[in-house]
Amino acid sequence: MKDSRVKKVLSKMVEKNIPQIIVTSPESIFYLTGKMIRPGERLIALYLNSEGNHKLIVNKLFPIHENLGVDIVWYDDIENPIDKLSNIIKKGEVLGVDKTWPAQFLMDLMDRNIVKAFVNSSPILDTLRMIKDEEEIQIMKESSKINDEVMLKLWNNLKPGYSEKYYSNLLSEIYEECGASGFSFSPIIATSPNGADPHHGTGKDKIKLGDSVVLDIGGKYKNYCSDMTRTVFIGKEPSKEHADIYNIVKNANEKAISIIKEGVRFSDIDKAARDLITEAGYGEYFTHRTGHSIGIEVHDFGNVSSVNDDEVKAGMIFSVEPGIYLKDNIGVRIED
Questions:
Q1: What is the value of pTM for the model shown?
Q2: Cα-flanking dihedrals φ and ψ of residue 88, to 5°?
Q3: Residues 140 and 317 sit within 8 Å (Cβ to Cβ)
């Protein structure tokens, strides 16, 4: 296991009076062990105890040949993994569980009445994962460098007559060529006026001469995500209205980025972008927060919003992505 990260988790457990936890998020298990297993509907759980005796419960469908530095408890598809877990958990004590652990497992464990209480222990891993170490920062830089290359290649391929879906399929090939292992999220490729829907589902609409196209894309590299949005105009200069909207969003993006440093509140970063767009008369059309944390998941815990007064700390990685969305007209988003 990643000993330094595990030690930080154990220290937080003691601080919060949680003697034992089960980590079931594949991303957090990867963070602590270096092994990514996506179990689907099957249970995977890393049991951590503040006094030691850690265990990793895994279905035999997912062989592990390397030494992860933790005892592995195997089960197969004709066994109930909660039986195995129940024999590992320390009876009569508080147990921390992940916020997204499926009810089918949690309710089975709760019905056995073997622990004192259940608490949500996800904030322990969530907050630790917000601060990237040097290894993570280097991987994230490489992931974003690949995304830069992919975006440029996609951009240079854009032309009228081809559908959003065509470019989504092409994008998959480009990521593979550039060394990524797939998408970090389903790409958004939205031609006019579809870009006015911030989460448009990429479809069969074809790009036309003069269209604006929102390109929101991200890939994975060594299990770490990238995420970027550009808005481009196809084949000719945009109208004055559309050019003005584009420049307002671009200025908002740059203004927010310019104030980022340790100690600045996330709410102030959001305000920097939002105030500029509001002063230009488009405040009601900026309908989402300014950004989100990013790492092993494209949306790690933490965000850049008006209600988040937490301060920026060294090692945090997050997006800045203001936008303006005018129904049946245009959508512009620029994300770094």
A1: 0.95
A2: -95, -40
A3: yes
